[in-house]
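#struct-pred

JT: dropping the chains for the assembly here, can someone run the whole complex?
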Amino acid sequence: MDDDFFRMTGIIKRYQMGDELQTVLRGVNLTVREGEFVSVLGPSGSGKSTLMNIIGCLDTPTEGQYILRGRDIGKQDARQLAAIRNREIGFVFQSFQLLPRLDALRNVELPLIYGGMPEKKRMERAEEVLVRVGLQDKLYHHPNQLSGGQQQRVAIARALATNPSILLADEPTGALDQATGKQVMSLFEEIAQEGRNIIMITHDLSIARHARRVVHILDGMLTEGESLHA
Amino acid sequence: MLRKKLSLWKESMRMSVMNIWSSKMRSFLTVLGIVIGVMAIIALITIMQSATTEVTDEFTAMGTGRLVVNAQGTPLKSGLTVADMEAIRAIPNVQGVSPTVTSTATVKSDNAWVEDVTIDGYNEVYFRRNAELVGRGRALTPLDVESKNRVALLDSTAVHHLFYAQDPMGRKVYIRGYEFTIIGVLSDADSSDVLAQAQSDGTDGGRIIIPYSTAMTLTGTRNIASLSVYVTDTAYTQQVQSALENELNAAFNYKDDSYRVINMESLLDTMDTMLSMMTMLLVGIASIALLVGGIGIMNMMLVTVSERTTEIGLRKALGAEPGQIQLQFLIESIILSLSGGVIGVAMGLAVSYLFSVIAGFGFVVSGSAIALGVGFSAAVGIVFGWAPARKASALNPIDALRSI
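RK: done, full complex below.
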């Protein structure tokens, strides 16, 4: 069971760029144990965004096998992938990606709507996760009334709403100043301590170090880095 | 499953209303085409229906169960004789015959002088059929006709010209030198008789009704050019018409084009068909505005989809299925065009109400017209929202999110 939680073997991703066939990932192997906090560290152009899309089931690999909780992602259709994204994956983006017309509560509610939860329970759950990220007094604020750090907290709350098995973060501190970034990172650490998987993609070593395990990606190849915090 | 769908519908509607409201000006301009199209359709249908009702009522008031005979006659015989008329009256199921002997004359009173007054010769049957015609005084009686009494009924125009600000009852008028006693005044509300109105048009001297027998003597004619035949029951109209035609053929020696019989009912049917054809044609033309409006909606939806690429990507990342994205944009386009439709219906009804007030018609709100307008606009939303919604649902979430 543990072995089959998250396993990527020989992942190859090629894109057709005009006449040229570009290989972005060249045989990535990655196994993540349940409850691990992993950073994927790499410079821009290294293929880390592509890797994130595949981990997040937004994209499927050209070759190789990706098993998430016993399911072969390469064999799922668009609807099944949507359901997997909804239930298993919580996305945190660099630029927060909150819908400006909705307040914090409604933003957090969104994935629960696609999950098919009844409205009353949705609002309860949304409030619960917003309280969890420390925004109990900002429930009805719209994104433009919140600071960057608060917006990212709303986004994290949204990612946690469906109680996914993986929190997938793409440069979560990229749009924040250092102090706020630190606060967000300590929130990630707390979440990790609760036993949730976090996979964070970044180009910043100091941010990557918050994870217990750092893997490096360069030119579409993954290499295991030193294990931090023992 | 059902609950999930309901939640999605509700959320999609909430988002749509928010999005439409947040760009009010753009949304308004977009739906303007729909508004105009639906307004035109509603106004046209409602006005045409009011007009049809009005015309039908007028024709019915003029009398169904009435056949109008216009006899041009032949070179040998320029109209119907009194004997012919008696023969027509003897046809089974004929209730009465009312001849019309029309001429114009200069009329004098003691203190005034009017040219071009229409002199209509009628009998008592005409007044029995049009009881509301007499405003004051009495109608013509069979005795008046039989004894060729010189009695007259004047309409308000004639009264105005001949007896300005005086009571005309019992006074005298002189038509072609003959003295007539005024026995009555016609009511103004004789608009029920379209034909009589049409006959009296073109002269502004007014209208005077006298016994037809007197009128024949007055003009020196032996023949009657026009008469109305009343049927006891509308069920017999056809039967009476053929008997009447036989009689007329005999009277005019089977000469072509010597007479014409107008059946008020078939005239009504023809009119009805004509009006509904005209309505269809006008609605067809108005539909072009709807088509143009639909293209406007499509354009705005395509713009919306490209503007909200990242939102679409985000929703997909959060677990939205392609069909759910499509539904959201389809709902938005339907709400957009439906709101245009509702505004259009309201404006169309306002326009037709205004028209009915100005034209003096009864205002008839047609439920089917409203249903048509609302249904049309919803259909436009579906048809023209489909392609943009499809495009949104087919967006690759990565491409969509990459514009971050």
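JT: nice. The mean pLDDT of chain A is 90. The first strand of chain A starts at residue 6 and ends at 17.
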